Amino acid sequence: IQQANNQNEELQNLYDILYKDHQSLLSEMSKLKLLYTETDAKLQQSTTYISELHINHKHDVEELESKLHTSQRELTLLKDQLDEKNIELEKNEFKTMNQDQQAQLTSLS
Fold this sequence. Notes:
The chain is an all-alpha fold. The chain has one helix and no strands. The longest helix is centred in the middle third of the chain and has 107 residues, at 2-108. It is rod-shaped and about 155 Å long.
């Protein structure tokens, strides 16, 4: 009976140790779950933030490209207008030269 009581006491001590270890592991697991949940939430926030940045960046790039194309079209129109004015100016200079030459010929005659 004494031996059975001693074995029973040893088994109870082992059970107490295992129970404490089990409780400790449950506590650690609970902390890890909380940490996982917090980390996952931060990851989701970061992912959302990165997605928004990507969308905003893409929108900004598209807007800038549109402005660039508009500016290029305006620049082309201005160049065409400048070319036309230069042609008119050259024609006027040529007419003026011809008139000056005719006036000189007329005055010589």
